Every structure is written in structure tokens, then in C-alpha cells.
From TrEMBL:
UniProt name for this protein: UPF0102 protein ACFPK2_15930
Protein family: Belongs to the UPF0102 family.
Pfam families listed in its UniProt record: UPF0102
Gene3D superfamilies: 3.40.1350.10
UniProt cross-references to SUPFAM superfamilies, sorted A to Z: Restriction endonuclease-like
């Protein structure tokens, strides 16, 4: 195996591991929010160029939830960058174009932060949605 192929294989393993931990974090966030009375509408909406991790509804509120899992809660909170917020807002506009009924609801950008051995931290209105 060439050095280049070995590097690609290591990256590939790391990407699979990262993807698995991201999906696990999303399911933990869904369970946490479901226990708080939210109902799942959609998961992993979007694709290349960014995605909305989960879309949840409770009462008159539709929440577009960014899920971040890191070794420390503080690191997870810092991972929601301005660029990520911009990408989420773009995907929210696309989601709303496909789900116009939601325009009658209160729209919010929430976040759920996860770290080992810590309770998940749900932050309602974690950042402003600029639509």
C-alpha cells in the first residue's frame, strides 16, 4: 500500500468514526428533547454545504436544532461558529420552502450540547435565525 493510500485509509476511518459519533449525538439529543415534549419532524436535512441536524416541534414552536458533541461542554458550545449559523439559516430557508405550513409557527434556532458524563444541555434560541 502506498503512503498516499494509507493516509486516505486513515482519513476514511476517522470520517466513519466521526459520522457515527455525530449520529449517536443526534439520537441522544432527540431523546432528550422528546422527554421535554418535543416531537421530531426531520433529521439531517440538507447535505453538501451544511445541514440542519434535527427539526423538532413543540406547541407553536418549530425548533431547528444544532447538535454538538465534544470532550467538554465548553468546546461543544464554541463549535457553533458564525459560519455554521449562516449555513443553518440557509438550510432553514430551504426547509421552509418545502414546509410552508411552518411559517405560521414561532421559528427558533436551538442547540443541544453533549459531553461525556454530563447531562445534555439544551439552549433554546441559541442564536438568531436570519431569514
Amino acid at each position: 500500500m502506498t503512503e498516499r493510500a494509507a493516509r486516505a485509509e486513515r482519513r476514511s476511518r476517522r470520517a466513519r468514526r466521526s459520522g457515527l459519533s455525530g449520529r449517536r449525538a443526534e439520537w441522544l439529543a432527540i431523546l432528550w428533547l422528546s422527554a421535554k415534549g418535543y416531537r421530531l419532524l426531520e433529521r439531517r436535512f440538507g447535505g453538501k454545504g451544511g445541514e440542519i441536524d434535527i427539526v423538532m416541534k413543540r406547541g407553536r414552536t418549530v425548533a431547528f436544532v444544532e447538535v454538538k458533541a465534544r470532550g467538554r461542554l465548553e468546546d461543544a458550545m464554541a463549535a457553533v461558529t458564525q459560519e455554521k449559523r449562516r449555513l443553518v439559516a440557509r438550510r432553514v430557508r430551504q426547509w421552509l420552502a418545502r414546509n410552508p405550513w411552518a411559517m405560521a409557527y414561532d421559528l427558533r434556532a436551538d442547540a443541544v450540547f453533549l459531553a461525556p458524563w454530563r447531562r445534555p444541555r439544551h439552549v433554546p434560541a441559541a442564536f438568531a435565525l436570519v431569514l
